[in-house]
Specification:
The complex is a heterodimer. By secondary structure, chain A is mainly β. Helices cover 6% and strands 53% of the residues of chain A. Chain A is globular and about 80 Å long. In chain B, the strands form 2 sheets. A 5-stranded mixed β-sheet of chain B has the order 2-8-7-4-5, with no helix packed on it. A 3-stranded antiparallel β-sheet of chain B has the order 1-3-6, with no helix packed on it. By secondary structure, chain B is mainly beta. In chain B, β7 and β8 (147-157) form a beta hairpin. Chain B has one helix at residues 2-20, and strands at residues 33-35, 48-50, 54-62, 67-76, 104-109, 116-124, 132-142, 147-157. Classes of the chains: A mainly beta, B mainly beta.
């Protein structure tokens, strides 16, 4: 009998024992970690949508390498991971530019399009994370077509005081050492807060000694993924005035990461490396590497004028991203980097993006209707540099006008409606190669890769919803139309992406993406039990995707396969199930499951799925929360068992991914020493050091398994007084 | 309220059932293949070609449905930047700086969508190029967009 069967038997025994037990549960013990309770959102515009909410406490309890990896425990939420500490969000199978991340009310603008670009958010700074599943274009405009990750800082202190937490963190798999200091205080109506996070990690380890980068075998010394070490340094400051009729807050933050990429495959192009040099230290960061700085300065204001509540938000962000690598001559690039070049020899790509945001809205009552009217506007300025070209520099303007209505028809039922109009304009620049290509029977030429381009887009979207609550039953239904603007790379890319041996070709005539979606939620929450079933159906009348064609391009593509941006019709459906049952006061069983299926209904890939389609999965968790004792409070022990099915539905150039089973263990307590509560947490992820691949991982194509066993220890030391 | 819930569940189950109804098309899930193991295939792992002459590339390409196109790329490996897809390792010269390395890029469309195709192409190696270690990369696609790469180490000799 293997370990897995023993474990399943053990769990089954526990469940049966608990189910037959007769003890009455005591209410309010332990944390209800993820709230999907509709009453929480009834008064907001997302009242008819499926929202999952996680607090800082749960984020720390489940903390993985990056925010999205932490959140991906939730059903319907996945991370498109790039190694151990970078990932981007995916909600119900849609990711990249199809999920908007909103921090402090303002859309986070990074390089959402890039496969190897993670989300630039410090996990320690997040007070609450809400995941809005389903199309939310009516609220956040383009990009919110698949869902929204909404992040807020910790709630301000209710009374005068000053408190803080020092968190220390260590992880075994990639020898992470780090910590975060978070402080906040209040004096009358004046509040302030802030934090500083530092993380230092080495190369991560996988349970294998060889990976096949395409067909090129690469040996890994002791399972170390060469050159994936990194360092992170983030800070946030906030402060302002919170009054009854007027509030104004200022948020200042900077996120900084310097991290390496797997040296043998960047992109996924196999690279032979000097293994002696690369394997000398597991903590050094050699080439290829990236440095990212994301700076934010936001100002949020709220006024109450009679029955009107007016919000005005202003924002400036800068996303400054540099990718370093040894100069590599691809195609007709000169074999030796010319010393006349002004671009530094190590700078493969640079993206510098400045974003200015202005949003205003007014909420007021009109009879029984609660109306909100508002405006969102954004200006982006994107510049590029580096000897490698993928997308041109561009500028983008966007203006959105919206109206929402919330109308309670009786004590149980509320109707929601929204209408939004968006106008946007994208202007991209001409780009010409800095090197000459050899053309057949023609003189050598400096090829023009991107023509100057100007496109205007108009969009009208709507949403209708209904939420009812009767006793322990709750239903929600939302029907709506969403849109997404074609991005600069979809319109104007024209370069070789060595990640995929692909020559990516934009299409200047693409139309905005259009999607129709029906989201339903049925929840039943009697005592001790909470079940939520949330199916959805989604039809894209126009979906933009990167289509690998049968052709190769000799000049622009240096002999690589042509991947062309194209449009197709897509049908998607799926559902999530969450169940939380407390058979006994101190025991909890949790079941989280999701299923997503996509199919292209037209175009060159008719019959195929969409890329990065997550495989169905189910997670069973058993938790025990022992009674508080003199020294230990709020203790917990939890065992997670996650089954992920095989993903056999793939689209070129993807590979099928085997199913797998993972077991994770978590424990924590508040240790009472000297009148302070020290929070101790332990996580053992992938207990059995299972070799598995995640279909949504960036490194899936090169068959690089996910992290092996990882023991994570963290300690939270409270500071100050309240 | 209860009636509404009931109807909603019924509608949902119906949609799930119709949604699951398999009208699955026959989609191609197999990659094309490159065969360089047969007798007159050239170059093979560690093959040598003489500069100032031409040689004929020969490989057998196949697919379960229909081939698309193939592409060749020859670039130097003077910096030992990469190895090949083949198990056998070839002897490498010491690292050196390229002066006039041989660069060859060629994309060829396979007409008629055959399932098997013997690719054959004359490649001229100018007398002025740097001799040494090179990579000879072959890529092939099928009509569905699946692709396969093969990287071979070759040597250009004087």
């Amino acid at each position: 009998m293997n370990r897995r069967s023993i474990l399943i038997l053990l769990m089954a025994t526990f469940i049966l024992r608990q189910a037959t037990a007769q003890e009455q549960p005591t209410k309010g013990i332990g944390l209800q970690e993820v709230r999907v309770d509709g009453s929480l959102y009834k008064q907001t515009e997302v009242g008819a949508m499926t929202v999952d909410k996680l607090t800082a406490d749960s984020i720390q309890k489940y903390q993985a390498g990056s925010l999205m990896q932490t959140l991906s425990r939730l059903p319907g939420v996945h991370a498109i991971g790039i190694g151990a500490n970078q990932s981007k969000p995916q909600v119900r199978g849609l990711g990249f530019n199809r999920v908007a991340t909103v921090e402090n009310g303002i859309k986070h603008e990074g390089q959402q399009w890039g496969l190897d670009h993670g989300l630039e958010i410090d996990q320690f700074s997040v007070g609450t994370a809400e995941i809005i599943k389903g199309a939310a274009s009516f609220m956040y405009g383009s990009d919110a077509i698949g869902g929204v990750i909404r992040l807020s800082p910790p709630a301000e202190l209710p009374h005068d005081g000053f408190k803080g937490t020092l968190n220390l963190l260590a992880k075994s798999n990639n020898a992470t050492l780090g910590g975060s200091l978070q402080l906040q205080g209040r004096r009358k109506n004046w509040v302030f807060g802030g934090g500083f996070t530092y993380l230092d990690y080495g190369d991560y380890r996988v349970p294998t000694d060889t990976v096949h980068v395409y067909n090129y075998p690469v040996r890994l010394k002791n399972g170390y993924v060469r050159n994936t070490a990194g360092r992170e340094r983030h800070f946030q400051l906030r402060g302002g005035y919170l009054g009854d009729r007027f509030s104004s807050m200022l948020y200042l933050s900077n996120y900084h990461t310097h991290a390496g990429f797997f040296a043998n495959a960047h992109g996924l192009e196999p690279r032979g490396v000097d293994t002696a040099l690369y394997d000398r230290s597991h903590r050094d960061i050699l080439f290829p590497s990236q440095r990212i700085d994301h700076f934010k300065l936001l100002n949020r204001n709220t006024f109450t004028l009679g029955s009107h509540q007016v919000d005005i938000d202003l924002g400036y962000q800068r996303n400054y991203r540099r990718e370093y690598n040894h100069y590599t001559a691809h195609g007709y690039m000169p074999p030796v980097y010319p010393d006349t070049m002004r671009i530094p020899i190590q700078l493969e790509r640079l993206y510098d993006k400045h974003i200015y945001t202005l949003a205003a809205r007014d909420q007021f009552g009109l009879g029984s209707h609660r109306l909100t009217i508002g405006i969102n506007s954004e200006y982006q300025h994107n510049t590029i540099s580096g000897w490698s070209f993928l997308i041109p520099a561009f500028r983008q303007k966007a203006l959105g006008l919206f109206i929402y209505d919330r109308y309670p028809i009786n004590a149980h039922t509320t109707l929601y409606g929204a209408l939004r109009y968006d106008f946007s304009q994208i202007n991209s620049d001409l780009y010409r190669d800095w090197f000459a290509s050899q053309l057949e029977n023609q003189p050598d030429q400096y090829l023009v890769r991107a023509q100057q381009l100007k496109r205007n887009f108009n969009s009208l979207v709507w949403s209708l919803g209904m939420a009812t609550q009767a006793g322990s039953w709750e239903t929600k239904l939302t029907v709506g139309k969403s849109f997404r603007l074609p991005s600069a790379q979809e319109l104007a890319a024209n370069g070789v992406n060595y990640h995929y041996f692909s020559y990516e070709k934009g299409n200047a005539s693409l139309s905005p993406e259009q999607s129709y979606q029906v989201d339903f939620s049925l929840a039943w929450r009697p005592e001790r039990l909470s079940i939520a079933f949330t199916p959805f159906f989604n039809y894209f009348s126009n979906y933009i995707y990167l289509n690998p064609t049968a052709g190769y391009d000799q000049y622009y593509g240096a002999g690589n396969q042509i991947f062309e941006y194209a449009e197709s019709k897509v049908r998607r459906y799926g559902a999530e199930l969450r169940l939380e049952y407390r058979p006994l006061a101190r025991w909890k069983i949790e079941l989280l499951a999701d299923y997503i299926r996509s199919e292209q209904l037209s175009g060159a890939k008719k019959g195929y799925t969409l890329p990065f389609s997550p495989a169905p999965s189910a997670l069973l968790d058993l938790s025990w929360m022992p009674k508080n004792s003199l020294y230990f409070k709020e203790s917990y022990f939890s065992l997670d068992c996650k089954w992920t099915a095989r993903q056999s539905s793939v689209v070129p150039p993807e590979e099928q991914t085997q199913g797998y089973q993972l077991v994770n263990f978590r424990a924590g307590t508040q240790l009472q020493i000297c009148r302070s509560n020290i929070q101790l947490r332990l996580q053992v992820l992938n207990i059995f050091d299972r070799k598995y691949m995640e279909h949504t991982s960036f490194y899936r194509l090169i068959a690089l398994p996910e992290q092996g066993r990882n023991v994570i220890l963290s300690m939270g030391i409270p500071l100050g007084r309240m | 309220m209860r009636t509404l819930t009931k109807y909603a569940i019924a509608a949902l189950m119906l949609s799930t059932v119709t949604g699951c109804k398999k009208d699955k098309e026959n989609i191609d899930t197999e990659k094309p293949q490159i065969d360089i193991s047969w007798g007159s295939a050239f170059p093979k792992q560690c093959s040598e070609v003489k500069r100032g002459t031409s040689f004929t590339f020969r490989a057998r390409l196949s697919d379960n449905v229909a081939l698309g196109s193939y592409s060749l790329n020859v670039h130097h490996n003077f910096d030992h930047h990469s190895h090949s897809t083949e198990v056998e390792e070839c002897p490498l010269d010491p690292v050196k700086t390229p002066v006039a390395p041989f660069v060859y890029v060629k994309a060829v469309n396979i007409s008629g969508q055959p399932r098997q195709y013997d690719a054959q192409l004359d490649i001229e190696v100018p007398a002025t190029v740097d001799p040494g270690n090179y990579h000879f990369m072959i890529q092939v696609t099928d009509q569905s967009g699946w692709s396969l790469q093969k990287g071979i180490s070759i040597r250009i000799v004087e």
